[in-house]
Design goal:
Blueprint: H1 6-28, E1 33-38, H2 40-43, H3 53-63, E2 68-71, H4 79-82, E3 106-110, H5 113-116, H6 124-147, E4 151-155, H7 165-179, E5 185-186, H8 189-192, H9 212-220, H10 226-231, E6 246-251, E7 256-259, E8 267-274, E9 279-298, E10 304-324, E11 327-331, E12 337-343, E13 349-356, E14 361-366, E15 369-375, E16 378-385, E17 400-408, H11 414-421, E18 430-434, E19 458-459, E20 463-467
Parallel strand pairs: 1-2, 1-3, 3-4, 4-5
Antiparallel strand pairs: 6-17, 6-20, 7-16, 7-19, 8-13, 8-17, 9-10, 9-16, 10-11, 11-12, 13-14, 14-15, 17-18
Helix pairs in contact: 3-9
């Protein structure tokens, strides 16, 4: 076995510390200024209250935390027409919102695949060309931002009311592609998708734009501590290297718990579990929401008529994922049970609960396949993995193993769930990625979180231990 000389080892440590210090220094020297740089939705179009849509809501949230949010967007822009606005050539046009002159430390790139022309393209060849043009254009903005010491964040594709099933395939494909890039992303589609690539009923203003309620759902897809995490230099999440372990739980109501500090609407929770006995393996609690719909008029001259949905808290709920009669199940907020055909056995199984608040639907997946769905509208406040969370949810299995816990502030579609089942890491709207590879799990400690956020699951009372890779079979 090769041994390092003490001086060489010391030098290596110094190099690592120096590199970390340089990265931290570069990030801390950036202005705490975020520029939202995009087209009409980023500009706030559709917000009947005229408060700049999700950009205005982001400003409202982050200003109290010491951040400045600027709106440098322009309606109608594409990847091509926005490129000249990155920096002025020659004398700046006073009527143009440029990016570089406002000196941002961070930029949210918010462009639309709809503006790029994917719907209008009629042939497969034309649609593929638009798809490539959009992806290449967004990559160009990412590269230019980094060259100018600006940290880029990309808003993913969002719905359009005229999208066909073919267009929806391109939307999902682009979302999945950008979700795996080495750049933070925000999953707008996971906030307002009706399941067909269109806005959920009551959340659209017109063909291309969300109304104020839709903008709010977009806003909820932002991880609240994303920019603080980026400022600290947190990298794009990756899986641990080397020997892998997992958490083995043998008792405890809430072995791993996360309570939201900021309002959450759409969400998805995903993890791998192995158990051979009945019991509750995860729980979700919070408040159900009731929706009230009304017809409004807005736009120039108040000529656009649209439906708007207002969501209000209704009653507390407890939902749970468990094993009943040897099969994985999801028990909804109203007690209805969705049963899968997957049997709890000696193998690892992937479980995902994906909730679309806007459309009022929860989808339950086991091993990458849809087991069932149920109508409900939730505002979650607490998540438990490894136990029932409360006596209302019954007991946990006598023993269960857990690894790779993901918690998103957006729902996931079937493509994205399948990617997680295949071991891929998706980082759009990702609040927590806990591999559960920690060397130990002491009560009240926080579990490693590799997502670009400052959140974490916390270890509760009960017996939870690190198990080695050799035990994974």
């Amino acid at each position: 076995m090769k041994r390092f000389h003490p001086i060489a080892r010391f030098s290596l440590v110094l190099l690592v510390l120096f590199t970390a210090t340089v990265v931290q220094s570069q990030n801390s020297n950036r202005p705490r200024r975020i520029a939202v740089f995009g087209s009409s939705v980023a500009n706030g179009t559709g917000d009947e209250f005229g408060k700049e849509g999700y950009t205005g809501l982001l400003r409202e949230l982050l200003s109290a935390r010491g951040w400045e949010v600027l709106n440098q967007s322009r309606g109608g822009d594409t990847t091509k027409t926005m490129a000249p606005r990155f920096a002025p050539q020659g004398t700046p046009d006073p009527n143009v919102r440029y990016l570089l002159p406002v000196n941002p430390g961070y930029v949210v790139i918010g462009l639309s695949l709809a503006n790029e022309g994917v719907f209008e393209a009629k042939t497969t060849t034309d649609k593929e060309a638009i798809f490539k043009q959009y992806a290449d254009g967004i990559k160009g903005f990412i590269d230019r931002s980094r060259q100018n010491n600006i940290v880029p964040i990309v808003g993913l594709v969002y719905p359009r009311m005229v999208y066909t099933s073919v267009d929806y395939e391109y939307v999902r494909k682009m979302n999945l592609l950008q979700n795996t890039w080495d750049v933070p992303t925000v999953n707008y589609l996971g906030a307002t998708d009706d399941g067909n690539g269109r806005y959920a009923k009551g959340f659209d203003f017109d063909d291309k734009h969300p109304n104020a309620a839709g903008h709010r759902e977009f806003f909820y897809a932002f991880v609240p501590s994303l920019f603080d995490a980026l400022e600290k230099g947190k990298p794009t999440p990756t899986a641990p290297t080397g020997a892998r372990g997992f958490a083995r739980v043998t008792e405890g109501i809430a072995p791993l718990r996360f309570d939201t500090q900021d309002t959450m609407h759409p969400f998805a929770v995903s993890f791998f579990v192995r158990t051979q006995t009945d019991g509750t393996v995860a729980a979700i609690s919070g408040s159900t929401l009731t929706g009230k719909s009304e017809v409004k008029k807005g736009g120039r001259g108040g000529t656009v008529e649209f439906e708007s949905m207002t969501l209000s808290p209704e009653r507390p709920f407890n939902a749970a994922v468990g094993v009943q009669n040897g099969k994985f199940t999801y028990r909804s907020a109203n007690g209805t049970v969705v049963r899968s055909e997957a049997a709890a056995d000696s193998r690892w199984h992937h479980v995902a609960v994906s909730h679309y608040t806007a459309r009022g639907e929860t989808l339950f997946y086991v091993d990458g396949k849809l087991a069932g769905k149920i109508e409900e509208r939730l505002q979650p406040k607490g998540f438990v993995v490894g136990g029932a969370g409360s006596a209302d949810n019954g007991a946990a299995p006598k023993q269960a193993d857990y690894r790779d816990v993901f918690l998103f502030r957006s729902a996931l579609n079937s493509d994205e769930v399948a990617a997680l089942h295949d071991g891929k890491i998706l980082q759009a709207s990702l609040e927590i990625y806990a591999p559960l590879n920690d060397a130990q799990f002491r009560q009240d400690m926080t579990v490693e979180n590799r997502a670009q956020s400052l959140s974490a699951f916390k270890v509760g009372a009960g017996r939870i231990v690190h198990a080695a890779k050799s035990s994974m079979r």
